[in-house]
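User: Round two. Same drill as before: sequence, then structure, for each protein.

Assistant: Same drill it is. First protein:
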Amino acid sequence: MNSQSNLAFAWVSYQNRNVTTIHRNKLNHLYSQTAAGTPLTSTDLAELGISADLAVHYVRAGWLTRLARGVFCRPNDPLALHPSLILLQRQIQALHVGGRSALDWHGMRQYLHSAPVLDLYGWGTGRLPDWFTQRFPAQYHRKRLFDEQPDALLHVAPFDQGPAAPAASSPERALLELLSEVGVRQPLQEARELTEGSYNLRADVLRELLQHCTSVKTVRLCLQFGRELSLPWAAKLDPAQLPTGSKRPWVSRSADGLLVLKP
């Protein structure tokens, strides 16, 4: 090999080492900038200087795991629920933890029930991705229970006001979301038992939500349970100021039997 060939070989080797160093530096930067268990989209990677082609290289090298098209995570790194939910919130409009799951997060739970399924609520038609449901059993509810806007949901906020926490319903909203499912996917008796533990709900928050509630059934069921269980907040609510519908009984038949709700 002549001297010119040696120089060319040395230059190629230098370039390869340089490229490898750059790739490893980007990978180290990625690992240092993301918490363990955090899923990342192609957009997230691009913001960290990792192109689509480089992401493919990392996957082939075993330095990244591909969860789905355009979604990745660190290898051998079990996904964490909260950052996974935050990613879904960017993809599904108004997504938040609600209903029974939000009640459970707030400490209002029923101890004798089957393995929990995460109840997620959103504004429009949506589907939870397989990479999420395979790790976190969940069901999605397309629900427009209140007169509100998707970018300004009533009493939905980051859970415990954490800096990187997923959105969740307040206990008051979660209870109404739960009651709205009675006769559909929510057994009546379980709803009643969970409502029985709601004595600490804030009457002013519940009043605001009920005033914006678009479901007569939900409003009447909340008031009826509140009265029957002698809950403190029930005495502070005036049915005349709430959308309870007409003076006729609300009647529905379900697996629990006939449900009759008076105004």
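Second protein:
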Amino acid sequence: MLDTMFATETMAELSARQGRVADAVAIFRHLLRGAQAEAEGTPNDAARVERIGKWKSRLAELEAGATSAAAATPPIAASRNRSASAQAEVAEPTGQRSSLVIREPVRSGQVIYAEGRDLIVVAPVHSGAQLLADGNIHVYGPLKGRAVAGAHGLRDAQLFCLALEAELVGVDTGYLLSDDIPAVLWGGSARVFLTAEGTCTVAALSAGKGGVALAPRRSPGSASGSYVRRGL
């Protein structure tokens, strides 16, 4: 089973990459509260202390960056900038760059990021490995790690694999953990996509446009109800 803390940290970083700083800040605060509560009355654990320190440092960076940006940009201009940026992200075709093709197995601990293009992996993706792509992801082999397509806001991106055994899969800000994937689809060829409502959905490749829709996960502390990615 996927380490949910690590998964949530991953989603926080992906939210930050997408410009969703408020979501990223909320996630890191949630993580810190949980880790600090867990540490009370228990012996110091070096790994936990290091993790808490890392999250505090990252939270401070995000909060400082958000404050600086807000102070430097008038509200109306900031709104216009965000709108223009969002339009540019959606309008930019991923086909402008050739796909990134990985022919070797992706091992535990490796992170492969296809910036501004599709990612094609013609080898197994092992547990603990991570795939990120701004476009689509194709895995011609078992997918046992984590994979997020449309990582920079492309909601029409999809993920395809020949054997779905993933710890986490997602598109844009919607995602599913291994426990969310129906047993009938586990280990088979599948595609992952978002519905018009933003629900992350998995379907057998032979199932056409239908799929097994699953309840979207939401960002801890987010009032907007926006979907989160857990990853990086």
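Residues 1-5, 73-95, 213-232 have pLDDT under 50 and may be disordered.

User: Perfect.
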